[in-house]
Amino acid sequence: MSNFSLALSVYLLLFSALSFSQERAADSSFINDLDEVVVAATRNERKLSNVAVPTTVISQKQIQQAGSLRVKDILSEQTGLVMTSGFGAGIQMQGLNPDYTLIMIDGQPLIGRTSGVLDLNRIAVGNIKKIEIVKGPSSSLYGSEALAGVINIITDKSFNRKLDAGIRYGTYRTVDANVYASSRIGKLGVSGFINNYNTNGYSIRPSTVDRLVLPVWRLTHNVHLSYPLSNSTSLSLAVRYNHELIKNELAVTNNGQITISKGRELNDDWNITPVLNHRFSDRIKTAVRLYGTLFEGSQKLTTTAGETYNDLQKHQFYRAENQSDFILNDHHSIMIGGGIVNEYLNSTRYDNEKNLKKNSITYGFIQSEWSPDKQVSFITGFRYDKNNLYASAFSPKIAAQFKLSEKLRFNASYGRGFKAPDFRQLYLNFTNSAAGSYSVYGTIDAYRLISELQRQGQIEQLESDFYRIKDLKPEFSNGLNIGFSLLQGSELKISANLFRNDIENLIDTRLVALRKVGGGQTTQIFSYLNVKRAYTKGAETEINYRMLTCMTVSAGYQFLSTADKDQVKDIKAQKVYTRDANGFSRIMQRSEYFGLPNKSRHMINVKLLYESSVSGLFANTRAIYRSKWAVTDIDGNGLYNSRDEFAEGYVSVNASAGKTFRERFRVQAGIDNLLNYVDVSNLPNMPGRTFYTGISYSFIPKINK
Amino acid sequence: MKKNAIAIGFFAVCLVSSCKKESTPVDTANNGTFKVFTTGNITTVQNLSADTILGFAPSGQPFGAGRFTFFNLEQKALVPNSDSATNRWDVGFRGTTIIINGGSSGPAAGGGFVWNGAFENLTTIPADSVFRTDNASSTAIPSGSGRGWYNYNGPANLVTPLPGKVLVVRTATGKYAKLEMLNYYKGGQTPSSTASDDKKLREQRFYTFRYTFQPNGTKIF
């Protein structure tokens, strides 16, 4: 601890020394530049200041200076975003689980979710120009998954002459190397990016073979081509290939016996995006986008005795889409689009891994942007998704912005979001023979499979939920966002947003039958039902203040309240009990209810950022606080209340400093998790304190600027 | 280890200081920790072992000796297993299964059901109550997670008695009792969800419950 306080004092001293060297203002991109262009909010390039929905943009510089390697790293420091653990690092936005945030690269969705989680460790940041975060339902533009919000990762497509290389080394032998090259060859724009990431992984649980973060090797390739066919027509092609190998040594204690297994998990994703853009006139343009993506994940486990366990899933997604934009007049523009999606999946967890499951979606959308005058603008639109496998979805959205002055703007928006049932919920046919031997059947086959078992006399009992199994419907939300932003020169920006999401038709895993296994024992059979209703609501605020020309402080806070509506109804009806200190039952009060699991009521981040354009020095410290969250129901009432088990709130502090020489050579060093906060059971993905240092170099000097 | 020693020490002090006033230990043969004491009309049973786990079948299912632990509510005492075919016991415990002397479980005319509410709020057994008896396919107190008296949390691998459930029992002698299950683990302490599965298995199948027995034969407590 004394070592740490010494380090901290040295660090603070350094920081204060830096901040007293007054200099010309650096173009601090830490205050969200209002001239920044965002795409994800409207599917069109719009100034951030004109967007009526809650939107944040993270710049390349922010990502670099924070020392981030993966998209997960930088998102974990943003106001109101929580990185969840379990099936990789997923994102929790406005208190909603990772299943409900759409993740896109250049406007195209990423696939390959496990239990609804898209692992944000899979995305390298080296060629990212910026990350757009849009909160609130955006299904009116993007369809399924855009229920809590959208994260759009935008890669660099400037095709300036560039050859950049960087390498970084850190604790646990983590090596990250990047090469980025781009140029124009005649009219053809070309760029290429390769990232190689390697880590040995770590164990924060002493004396065990299990590593919490495993040895991982990731290799990302990205190629972009862009060619103007004429002044008004251009063609582009983007290809991304990501390869991931995770080595796993697993010790499972069963029946007092320890079985050690060696595992290998391989994940590959391919994304191919050809796009044709055409401009008919200054007022009319259109884009045809094709997108193909494939995710193949496999897990192989081999015990020391030579037994093997294989798990495979292959997911393919093909889409053809057109979007056309019409500028009617200076006040009004309209966008119309539509497309077709074909999706395929096969997995060992379904009836037969060779049996390809298919879904087709046809969709259309329309959006109008209308500003009757400079002070007021309205966005209205909707999208209709027609699905082969489940009910169609209609997703409207309406948003308004009022500029009271150049400094003060109010935004309000309402949107309906949805998430389609996924293949797992439709087709899963999985029996866990290790733990308790339970089975989970997707809804399409559940009724048939269980009825067949019953004919064979293998069913002990059918639960009432068995009779409620039917075609799954999409999960819906109604989301409301109201906020303002206040700007004081270039020194101060304050923004706040209130949100509420009401979610219906939530899909829950329910016990539907008991199966006989002999010896008077039974095992459970589960399926999926649209049965839950919930809400998340809260307030989010952010303040950015440039104290000195080269010194910025920012603070963000989110208050969050969540609930399962049926649980609240039961509590109000005094049907829910808990236990007192003696363990005796008593009626639970509403005030004791904690809402949904894994949701923190308070989140705070404070960032201190120094950057000098003269000396090229930069340094920053970012502190992130997350208050306690519910983990396990202890008192047996099936919901989370103050007598249950919580993960403790914690602070993580990350710091980084470096210097850029002549805009070409950059050295950087940093510490993540400075306070060495560790919670083995609840934060398995968070190692203790780690250190890193890296260099990067631009082989071609920047032309102007 | 140190913590355990302190806990045992603390427990011992509690025992000594509280025994005099309210506890009347009846049987200490069972694992040395079994305890019964009565305060007013409420009797508390601690650490009643119910077929604790001895090992694991090749299928992975844990097994015990397979015997029920029988209890006589009026006598506040354990009943030897050899008396299973008599009227001497009222309720029996084996793992999460609770049986009542009657129907397919025993020769008496006992029965029971689960009443929803707080223990002290059950002052009179409602007149329209239906007492079920054990039969070959189901017991009067249903077994299974969330169905009768307990919840099994799969991810945490823990069994927790459901709060707000009272087991109403008609005893072997036709009198009435109400029971509240308090805990399923040794010492009345549910292991932490992060404890090892080994600990969770070794320490389960120890019942702690409280009950009120009405000796005058009425349904009023």
So what's the overall shape of chain B? globular
**Strands of chain B, total number:** 14
Biggest beta sheet summary of chain B: 6 strands, antiparallel
Q: Summarize the main sheet of chain A.
A: 22 strands, antiparallel, barrel
Describe this structure in words.
The complex is a heterodimer of chains A (705) and B (221). Chain A has 705 residues and is mainly beta. Chain A contains seven helices and 38 strands. In chain A, a hairpin with a 4-residue loop joins strand 21 (393-403) and strand 22 (408-419). The longest helix of chain A has 19 residues, at 2-20. The radius of gyration of chain A is 26 Å and the shape is globular. The model of chain A is unreliable at 19-31 (pLDDT under 50). With 221 residues, chain B is mainly beta. Chain B has a six-stranded antiparallel sheet. Chain B has a four-stranded antiparallel sheet with strand order 6-5-7-8, with no helix packed on it. A two-stranded antiparallel ribbon of chain B has the order 3-4. Chain B starts with a helix and ends in a 7-residue tail after the last strand. The longest helix of chain B has 21 residues, at 2-22. In chain B, a hairpin with a 5-residue loop joins strand 12 (165-170) and strand 13. Chains A and B meet through strand 30 and strand 31 of A and strand 3, strand 10, strand 11 and strand 13 of B.
Structure summary:
Chain A has 705 residues and is mainly beta. Chain A has seven helices and 38 strands.
Topology:
The complex is a heterodimer of chains A (705) and B (221).
Chain A: H1 2-20, E1 37-38, E2 46-47, E3 55-59, H2 60-65, H3 71-75, E4 81-84, E5 90-93, E6 101-105, E7 108-109, E8 128-135, H4 139-142, E9 149-155, E10 162-170, E11 174-185, E12 188-199, E13 216-228, E14 233-254, E15 257-279, E16 284-303, E17 308-329, E18 332-347, E19 357-370, E20 376-387, E21 393-403, E22 408-419, H5 423-427, E23 429-431, E24 439-441, H6 443-455, E25 459-462, E26 475-488, E27 492-518, E28 521-548, E29 551-564, H7 565-572, E30 577-579, E31 585-587, E32 602-611, E33 617-626, E34 629-632, E35 645-647, E36 650-661, E37 665-672, E38 690-698
Chain B: H1 2-22, E1 35-39, E2 42-49, E3 55-56, E4 62-63, E5 69-72, E6 77-79, E7 91-94, E8 97-100, E9 111-116, E10 150-153, E11 158-161, E12 165-170, E13 176-185, H2 197-202, E14 204-214
